[in-house]
Fold:
Amino acid sequence: MRGRPWISWPILLGVWGFLAAGIGKRGGYVEWFALAILTGIILLAGLSPWLAVRRLAAERRLSAELLQAGEELRVELQFQSAPIWPIVWIAIQDELSSMTDEQAQTVRYRRIVLPWFRTDFRLHYYISPVRRGEWAFNRLQVEAGDLLGLCSRRLKLRVSCDARVLVLPQPAAAGEKLKLWTGGGRLAGRAGQGLPGAAAAAGWRSHQAGPGEERRPYMPGDAYRYLDWRQAAKGRGLQVRKQGQEGAARCLIALDGSAAAHGQDMERFDACIAKALYAYGEAIRQGMQAQLLCNSAQPLRLRQGGGGGASQAGASAGALLLARVRADGQRSLATVLAADKLRLPQGGVLLCISSEAGGWEELLRLAAARRCRVELWLISRGAAPAHAMREQIRMFEQQGGAVKLWTMERSGLRQTAACGEEERHEDQGSGLVS
Structure:
């Protein structure tokens, strides 16, 4: 609706000058009447956009500030102003930007309204599907102009609801939106099982023959309350006592948040987050002492005990933290875990969720020394993994680890977009999803 002032103004001023010259020579009523009408049009067109938005106020209302990934966000914009002249148009633009994904495109909603002789009006639009992360609304941009395209005014309003929306990841169960790759049955053995429980982890521990307590050499990170001081007093060195399955109920779930692992594929990173949230909830439900961490620029650490009603509370806390996670870590997950080997659960389970299958040799060696089972969950693109990834998986299994691999389709999720009520009804009537 914006015209070309550099064309319109010279023409109008030329006509105005011609009429003024005619009045100077003849002074007829026709010239005076035409000059008065033209002067009124110029003044009204030039001043009306400024008068229309001089006291414009806006308010934004959201359907919810906490959503699940894939849901729909409804937004209502309410405007109040002085009466607007009937030759004024108002263009409104609202923006929603992601605070956790720099690659995500800004969602924009644009609308042109003609609220003539009205002091208030409302707009409703929808944003769908909303992806995981933290989203923030920018300032509302409003531009007013006349229908002749002579003048326009642009301003940014500070609305009364500068809110942020937090979109939680969805816990993905096994096979949900992903395809478990079996490789002709080669990975369907150990890797085809569910989340490793306490009993499965105990099978990786070495037991001494005979009844009674298990004793093994002391390793850094073991609790001092389990030291066998009698054996130490006899000169047999420091040994640790363990009862039954104790120690096997510890699970460390590590999410790879390095930039090199995921690159700019945030959809694959979101799939890894969904798997991490699912595994964390399952570990708590099985009564394990679960710990969740991520090696992003702002490290994420969450510890939760199992049993009772801790499963729901732990999953909710994990979802709130994982919603803000970014794939901006400088070091790989294997390097971070190997540098802090005392964090590996002694006799427990280490579950790594990543998109890289190589570089885990040192971590596997340290985990074997601490009698820790290592399982790697991989998310890959395409119908089948590349030959290099298959070789890395084979080497990982030969070194004592277990692997699960899910593949994603090439076509990604629908682009997040904003649409108004009219566009929504048209798309639904035509069988399309807006």
